[in-house]
Each structure stands twice: as C-alpha cells, then as structure tokens.
Amino acid sequence: MILLYGATGYTGRLVARTFADEGLPPVLCGRREDALRAVAEPLGLEVRVGALDDIDVSDAQLLLNCAGPFGVTQAPLLRRCVPAGVAYLDLAGEVDEHLAAAAWNEKARAADVLVMPGVGYGIVASDCLAAYVADIVGSPPMRVEVALKTVGAVSRGTAEVVLGSLRRTGVRRRDGALVACRPARHRMKVDFGDGDGLTTVVTNPWRADLVASVPSTPAYDTYMAFPAPVRMLMSVPHGGLLRAVARRLPEGPAEEALAKGRSAVWARATGTGGAQATAVLRGPDAYVFTAKAAAACVRRVLSGDAPGGVHTPASAWGHDLPLEIDAVVRADIEPGSR
Questions:
Q1: What is the crossing angle of helices 121-137 and 286-302, to 10°?
Q2: 3-state SS, residue 77
Q3: How far apart are CA 237 and CA 230, in angstroms?
Q4: Is the pTM of this model over 0.85?
Q5: CA-CA distance, 152 to 14, in Å (whole number)?
C-alpha cells in the first residue's frame, strides 16, 4: 500500500492524480477528512485521517510525504515509518531538510528501511545527472557543477520558499566540507541545449545536492537560472515584502501552463588531470516532472528494490532513473572517455 501524506496542496493533488493515472493508487492521508475526500473521490481513492504523529502506517509498504514545510513534517513521519519498517520518501529539496534526513541513516540501516528525501524534480534530475557525468570522468571527480532551469509558472508555495530565501546564506562544498556561500555570489552562462542559447545562472546555495549528491566529490556547486528581476533582488534588502507578494499568486499553474512548461538540468564533472564531462537532461514542466519522478521511485520500492538506509535516487537506483519518465532526454555535451 502507498500512503500519500499532504495530498490537498497543489503539488500533492498533482501527485495523487498522476499516481492514479499510472496505476499506483495511493491512500490519501492528512488531518482534514473533507479536504482529503474532495481530492480522493474524483480519482476513486481511499482516505485515511490522522495527524503527523499518529497516522496509521502499519499496513503500508511506503509513505510519500508531499506536505511542506518539510522541516516540520519530515521528522514526525520518519518517527512513524522507520520503526514500523515502512519506506519513507518525500519531496524535500533543500540542504537543511536533507541533513535532517541523513541523521536517520543509522536507524534506517538497522531497520533495513529506505529513507529518501528529494524524489521530485529536485533532486531526481540533478542528482542523477551529476552521478552520470561523475561516472564518465571516473571516481571521484574533483569537482561537480550543476545548474537548473525551469520555464513555466510557479506555485504559490514554491514562490514563498524561493522569495523568502533570497537573502539567506547557504553553502557550497569545498575540500569535502560545507562552507558559507551567498545566493548569486557567482554566475556563469551555460547552454541547456533547449534552443534558448546561453543562459545566465547564479549560485543557488540551498540545493540539497550540495549535501546529498556524489558525496565523494571535494568541490560541488549548484546554480539556478533565476529570472533577471529575481537575480537583482538577491543583492538588495527586501524584508518580508516578497513573501507577501508570493502569497498573492495563484495556488499553482493551470493545466495549459503545465503542458507548455519545461525543465532542464546541466551538469559538469572535472576529474583528476582536468578531464571534463558535461551533459544536459531535459524534461517536462518541473511540477509534472516531480509527480512522474516520484512515481518512478515508488515503483522501485513496490518492486522490492528498496535498500536500507538514507539514499539519494542515484545512490539507490543509478543515474538512468530519470530516463524512465516520458519526455525526458539526456545528451552529452562534451562526452569524455568512460
């Protein structure tokens, strides 16, 4: 049985519908029965009412947490799942959330339970592409750089997280350690191979890849193709004004916008002696990618392929996982020798 916690938010509803369409009917969980049934009944799904710290997981094979903020919801659900032998997956995509999950590794390994944060677009796409280019140059590469780009509308929740973080110091990986890094401190131009030519990307020091992906790499940097106005706001004081603006946005993109959206990831690994490998991964709208990536991960767990401990998608299932998603393609830009 699949338990889906947090199905009443924008992304949770999209995940529930995607799972139902793909023959992976989840049981929708949460505190408000009326809100759950409003999502579940049109899809022919069951509901289970419960709070974070008392939801019944005894008959489940896995629980997928779509309820943010994950800094609040992750720990109570892990406390329910790991002792019960239930695999735990979520959509968390930031450094702090993945560090918190990593602290469960010893308990998860002892219980032979899979714990995997980041089963959406973040970090499935970037983690797997980073592992792919790292594999080309040989292990371990000396440096990995990853850049992400999304084209399309954003949900209210995503906007609140991003705009609320613009002045918050993040990290980068240097000599195997995490060191402080300001957003937009560095910038470069990359070609995502999507027909848009060179795109400016800037430091995004909150990405979970920095602590989770290719852990043996001494240096790791993450970048994002923010719109120009957002890049400007990263360097000026703004207080809580931007969060207030975000709260006035629509809950999420409409169907037409989702159909037109697209996403891309660029990754480059530099090996000993300077050898480099660069590749891009292109796919559908980031929200669609998230729902389909989560479904791909859930299928692996249901098939019995669920290694115990805390894993990333690539460490559990290899760098080809995103290629199981419709409309996702990967291309070498500067192929190296394997």
A1: 80
A2: helix
A3: 12
A4: yes
A5: 16
